[in-house]
Write a structure and sequence with these properties.
- This protein is mainly alpha-helical and about 375 residues long.
- The chain has helices at about 1-5, 20-45, 50-60, 140-145, 150-165, 175-195, 205-230, 255-270, 275-285, 300-320, 325-330, 335-355, 360-370; strands at about 235, 240-245.
- A hairpin with a 5-residue loop joins β1 (about 235) and β2.
Length: about 375
């Protein structure tokens, strides 16, 4: 027994025997470190992860820096035909927008402006159906409206960025253009969320989880609401431009049903006469989803949801008594949007795996955040 104990003691009386495998361990450690450095370098080239991207966006709040990527040099003359022959305004308008610039979207309301009245004159030339909304608005909804991005400002920023990208996008690459539009719209959504009532009171970790959960539904809902109040021809984009559906490539197998569901849902929203205030409430309900896993302040999110739902109920009952059970009919739209968004995510991920979608974008970071 004593012999066994002594044999395990080194000559210098320290425990343990001689390490005969030191060179092997050092070589293995060096190989692992090289592999780790290679992976880190690759990750930096591909793009940051979602947590770093959102933390940078939140950090910008303290300095009030613009969240949109800096505008690149315009490579293509804006007076020449643009990508996919999307029509541009060709004359100045009473609103003062000149050649090559987009018309303001003119949603049915704007939180920065007083409510319109049935008798107030308007000089807008937008094809959107601008209608006065009921004035009996709960105080909370008025607060929610203050968080909204000015539609004309959003349109101008996204349109300017897309114009700067014309020379960098292959002619006819409608899918690539759509991804860039979605990416820019996502930047606007993050900016809207971090400055909005309720959301800004949550921990950053919860904010990131909520955004990662809701981004695709927000994109789909925003697109559909834009079509609800558009009376022109074609599909209205966030830039104020339109695309002729006949010019779009054929939908892949399995996506035709999604397009049909979107069309039916837009018609349903038109029948319900969904207005801007209801749209804003529902947008917050999509964002503040207490069913998201691992929320630290789930009780707060639950409380926010209850307050918004109650205000939306009061608003619909007070102002749309002629539409039976409008509140519940509006709520039934949300699961439909969620289903469509999930199908769209699957399609986008397949496109990404086939190399048709660039990785270095907020759109792709959001997509991968749901698949970790």
């Amino acid at each position: 027994m004593l012999f066994q104990y002594l044999s395990a003691v080194r000559p210098d009386r320290m425990r343990g025997g001689r390490n005969k495998f030191g060179p092997m361990y050092k070589r293995d450690r060096a190989q692992k470190q090289q592999l780790k450095n290679k992976l880190l370098a690759t990750r930096q080239v591909v793009g940051p992860d979602i947590s770093m991207a959102l933390k940078n966006i939140h950090a910008a709040a303290s300095t009030s820096l613009p969240l949109y990527p800096p505008q690149a040099v315009v490579i293509r003359d804006p007076r020449k035909p643009t990508l996919m022959n999307i029509p541009q305004p060709i004359a100045s308008t009473p609103n003062g927008y000149m050649n090559g610039q987009m018309q303001p979207l003119n949603y049915t309301t704007n939180s920065h402006l007083p409510p319109t009245s049935c008798n107030s004159p308007t000089t807008s030339t937008s094809p959107l159906d601008v209608k006065p909304e009921p004035d009996n608005t709960p105080k909370l909804i008025s607060e929610l409206l203050k968080s909204e991005t000015d539609p004309a400002q959003l349109q101008s920023k996204v349109a300017s960025f897309m114009q700067s990208q014309m020379g960098m996008t292959a002619p006819g690459d409608i899918f690539g253009m759509t991804c860039k539009l979605a990416d820019q719209t996502l930047f606007a959504f993050v900016d809207w969320a971090r400055n909005s009532i309720f959301f800004r009171e949550l921990k950053v970790e919860d904010q990131m989880k909520l955004l990662q959960n809701a981004w695709s539904e927000l994109l789909i809902f925003d697109h559909m609401y834009r079509q609800v109040h558009y009376n022109g021809e074609g599909i209205l984009l966030v830039t104020g431009q339109t695309i002729d559906p006949k010019s779009l490539p054929a939908l892949p197998v399995g996506m035709e049903n999604v397009a049909e569901r979107i069309s039916r849902l837009i018609m349903r929203m038109q029948e319900l006469k969904i207005d801007y205030k209801e749209f804003v409430c529902m947008k917050f309900m999509v964002l503040l989803n207490s069913d998201v896993n691992s929320l630290q302040d789930k009780h707060m999110v639950d409380s926010y949801q209850d307050q918004i739902s109650s205000s939306l109920l009061d608003y619909t009952v007070s102002n749309y008594s002629g539409i039976h059970d409008k509140f519940n009919q509006l709520l039934r739209i949300l699961p439909e949007i969620r289903h469509i968004a999930t199908r769209a995510e699957d399609f986008l991920y397949c496109k990404h795996l086939s190399g048709e979608v660039p990785f270095n974008s907020l759109l792709m970071e959001m997509l991968h955040s749901k698949r970790k």
